[in-house]
Amino acid sequence: MVVSRGNPAARLMVVGEGPGAQEDASGFPFVGRAGQLLDQMMASVSIDTNRDAYICNVVKCRPPENRKPTAKEMAACLPWLLEQVELVQPEVILLAGATAVEGVLGIRGGITRLRGQWQQWQGRWCLPIFHPSYLLRNPSRQTGSPKWHTWQDLKEVKRRLDQPGG
Ligand code: URA
């Protein structure tokens, strides 16, 4: 089981898809290459992932061969995520990638369309972003690239967190 890393009193929660090999081996989410990129991008907007965020996943166990978690697996794990939200009480939740968006909001497909669009879930601000693994495969930082959009999204998150009352 990979439950979380970071600060359980944080105002920001990051929800990914599910643990990969390194996460499975260490017991902590987002510690592999995707996690390192997440940390770097968050640091660029002055968010320290272990101090300022609580990081977790929709599914808590590694799907075999890194396949996408099934709808049934995501539904089975959802009550645990809801408990995590209750315990942490985040003001802002980032949903990393289409699978997290599907598992949490029940909206399928179209991360390109959904990213950067604030949603409400569990009475909290929720923002879909590109998954950092996708950004590893699309490393361009040019204006309009996925990485550039993610940076805009993270700046927007930072702006919201810096507003009094979220
Ligand atoms: N990808 C995810 O979605 N979650 C992790 O914890 C690691 C990689």
Notes on the protein architecture:
The protein is α/β, with parallel strands linked by helices and 166 residues long. It has one domain: Uracil-DNA Glycosylase, subunit E (3-Layer(aba) Sandwich), CATH 3.40.470. The chain is built from eight helices and six strands, in the order E-E-H-H-H-E-H-E-H-H-E-E-H-H. It has helices at 21-26, 33-43, 49-52, 71-88, 98-105, 111-114, 132-137, 146-162, and strands spanning 5-6, 12-16, 53-57, 92-96, 119-121, 124-129. Strands 1-3-2-4-6-5 form a six-stranded mixed β-sheet, with helices on both faces. Strand 5 (119-121) and strand 6 (124-129) form a beta hairpin. The longest helix is centred in the middle third of the chain and has 18 residues, at 71-88. The radius of gyration is 14 Å and the shape is globular. It starts with a strand and ends with a helix. The mean pLDDT is 97. The structure holds uracil. Uracil is lined by residues 16-20, 23, 29-30, 32, 34-35, 57.
Features:
6-stranded mixed β-sheet; alpha/beta; Uracil-DNA Glycosylase, subunit E; binds uracil; single chain; 166 residues; 8 helices
Q: Any idea what the CATH architecture is?
A: 3-Layer(aba) Sandwich
Contiguous uncertain segments of 5+ residues: none
Q: Please outline the major beta sheet.
A: 6 strands, mixed
Distance between the terminal alpha carbons, to the nearest Å? Answer: 32 Å
Beta-strand portion reads: 15-25%
Query: CATH first level: which class?
Result: Alpha Beta
Question: How large, in whole angstroms, is the Cα Rg?
Answer: 14 Å
Q: Rough shape?
A: globular
- Fraction of helical residues: 40-55%
Estimated structural class:
alpha/beta
**Total of helices:** 8
CATH fold assignment: Uracil-DNA Glycosylase, subunit E
Residue-averaged pLDDT, rounded? 97
Order of helices and strands: EEHHHEHEHHEEHH
